[in-house]
Amino acid sequence: LIFPEASVARMDLDTTRTRTAYEKIIADFEQGRTDILIGTQMISKGLDFDRVSIVGILNADTMLNYPDFRSYERAFQLMAQVAGRAGRKNKRGRVVLQTKSIDHSIINQVIANDYEQMVSGQLVERQMFHYPPYYRLVYVYLKNKHEALLDMMAKAVAEKLRATFGDRILGPDAPPVARIQTLFIRKIVVKIEYNASMNRARELLLRIQREMLEDERFKSLIVYYDVDPM
Prior knowledge:
Oligomer: single chain
CATH topology of the largest domain: Alpha-Beta Plaits
């Protein structure tokens, strides 16, 4: 053990299922009964401890590699927020950041605490690749109990969407959570110009859905939409 004499506590969903458990973990750390607090992202949320001098961020690359166009922005926000836990109230602290991507722009912006550079860089990329705030997004989720059939249906839906929306279509792909209970899931992304009519886009999406469900093979397909996903 590196710190054999230290008292260590864990703070995550499993250890904070009750309000009293959460409050005890916070109180023990605040009053010095716990020396090292290990936990998930919830540690970064609004906690202010006088005694914190070192904060460690483990495996930061996981946040950077998450399959979402907002992953860089969210990674910066979380790392900057976690780093802010060290050296509070005019006391200088230290932040240890574990990463395999030391030259990554977001890592360097976190180190420099350069929020403006992060924002300007992300806006350039989002405009280039047609993401918000320059385009609106609609996630089309398809569900079915049979994965092979779902893949066939998802490809057919994507082909019909591309015939209407062209290169504004991404997918189909399996989302990070690709199965819930007995249903497999596939996702298609539709990008729509901000000045385009969403009513017209809605009509086109529903028309394609009706056409697909008219095919006997696709009667069991479940379709739902997430407009402007958060």
